[in-house]
Structures are given as C-alpha cells and as structure tokens.
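From the pipeline queue, job 12 of 40. The input is one protein chain; the requested action is below.

Action: predict structure.
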Amino acid sequence: MPALFVSCCVKLIIFTPDYMFSFIHILHFLLIFQPLIYALQLFTYENTNSRANRTLAFLMVFVSLFYFVTAPFFLEPLGIEVINNYTVYGLLLTINPFYYLYTRSLTVEGFAFDKKQALHFLPAAVFLILNVIAASVQEGLMTVHSIRIASTTLYNLQVIVYAILMLVLLRKHSTNLKYYFSFTEDINLNWMKVFVGMYIIISSLDLLVFYIGNSGGVQIFYYAMMVFFFNFLGYFGLRQKDIYDSKHAQTEISTEVVEDVAPAEVQEVKSGMPEAKKELLMESILKLMEKEKPYMDPKLTIFEFSKALDINKTYISKVINDQMNENFSSFINRYRIEEAKKYLKAAEYENYTIEGIAHTVGFNSKASFNNAFKKFTGMTPSAFKQQDDSQSGS
C-alpha cells in the first residue's frame, strides 16, 4: 500500500505539475486524504467497539472515495478516469444516509446496523448499477446525463429528509438527557446541532454550485467550506464518547418492579402503575439514595440505578416522575445540593473551594453546580455560604 501511494504521487508530480500547484486541487487533495486519516484514527481508537466510531469511520471512507473518483488530477495520470463514470453517483447517495446513521448511533440506545438500516443504502446500490449500465450503453433514456440529473435530484431530497430526521433525533436526545442522566457534560451533543446546521447550509451551497456552474471563485469557496466541514465532523467525532454504550444495554436485567409484577405489565408502565407498587419502588429508591449515596458519582445514570435495584429503568423513571414530580436528573441533583449545603455549613470544610465541593458532591463542573444550586435554593453557593456565616456569627 505505501509503495502504491508513492507511485501515485510520483506520477502526479511528473505528469501534472500544474495541478499540484493549483489551490483548488490542494483543497480537493485534502478532501481525499484528511477523511482517510480520521477513518484510520476512528478504526484504531481506544474505544474500538464503539458503533458510533465505526459508523463515522465508514462515512469518512466513503467521503474520501467520492472525492477520489471526482478528482481528474488523480485519475487521468493514472489512466483510471473511467471509474468516475461507473461509481460517482452511487457514492454520492451513500453520504446522506451515513450522516443520519451516525446521528442515530449517538442518540439511540442499543443502535445496531441491521437489515433495516441497510435499506438506507438501497438508492445508492440502485444508482451504482444504473451508473454502470449508462456508462456502457450511452443511448436512449439510460445515459450518464440522465443518471446525473436523477441522482442529484434524489440527493437533494435526501438532504431535506435526513436533515429533518437528524433534528428529530437530537431533540429526542435532549429530552432523554433529563430522564436518563444526572449530567450533561460531553453528552448534550450541542456540536451535532451545529453540524446539522452546517450540513443544511453546505448542502444548499452544493445545490447552488450544481446549478450555476463551477466558476473558479465559487468552487474554491465551496471546497474550502467542505474541508472545514469534514474537519469539524472528524475533530468532534474523535472527541465524542459513546453515550449509550454497551454496558448500559446489560443493565436491563429485570422487568419486575416487585416480586409479583409480571413481565407483561412492562407495557402498562406508561399508562399507569398501581399506587402500592409505586410506593414500594419509591421506598427502594430512597433507601438506595440514603444508604449508598449514588448521587456522589458524577457519571451516574439511570442505567446504574437499574442495575443496582434489578429493576427496569422505565419503571424507575416513571415512579420518580409520579411520586416526586421531577425527572431523574432533577431528583439526583436535589440530593447533591443537599449534600453540598452540609459542606458549605460545616467548619471542617472551610478550606474547600466552591469548585472542590461541586466535584465532591457529584457535579462535573462549577458552572453546572452553580446553576443547580441556584435552581434549588434561589441563590449561589457563595451567597449561601456568606449567609450561613453571618447567621452563625450573630
């Protein structure tokens, strides 16, 4: 492989010196090789079992392939420019489904690439076949030009559909955070919301370039935007940890709330649960909170609760919501704030900073601690401490 790469580079330098010094071709070159570098990192990253990492890695590979087959300064010196006619539109139609599936891999618990997910690539497979036929026949309705028009029209429809689907997934994820997690740092996916916005803007620019033609200035701007776009995706994708990782899937141990609840009743959770069973489960939750103090764990999720109580997470979320009139995140943070008050009042912890107390009681940052403290007490931790000190002095 290294020998082939060196051979290709030598041929490019010898036969196409003008291309190598063209800024637009440098940008095109980056769009071929930078995604491959990101793909290599994602495939060999420490979390190699991450479905999200693998999905993004394959996305980067297909992006690289697409820009490779649309790069005449690569293909012509190598004498393989014909592959553009056979593959370009099939590859084009794989990109949007990969964006969606990557978003889904980050936001859906238990995501797996199965036959249902593979159907998203059916249009790409169909147009790959049509592309090969059109490149061979070149007559009647089945021409490369007709395939180009049909595939780009479908591509633009994909952008609209998948952009909506990605926004729906991100909105559901934002809602689920309150019911599944006691923290939001590194899992709120705010960067993905920016990504979808960029995706819509760049796709609109792509459409504009397609219809107004490839003038030099517009094309350079477009390629520069694409370089930034894929670097943005690659950079944040590498930093993003799995949110619903494999260990969470193993915590759904039981569907029982108490010993006499049948598995079939799981479907009744959303519509209602007998009050006696709610009270028993709430009692178990409160005992766990008082005895084990799980809220001190800054990475606590409802999945750990499910494992500790041997109860389905849906029941836990439902009961906390009904019995305490709050979501899981609020329930946990209320305990953390009560614990923080003890630290702020106790003389033996006077040397603790506000940030130190925040981390001690289970918050990941001082900012999230301050926000939660003000929500539950109506004042900042510093104001609470000063008030307590003044009351103690008087």
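Job complete. The domain at 249-393 is CATH 1.10.10.60 (Arc Repressor Mutant, subunit A).
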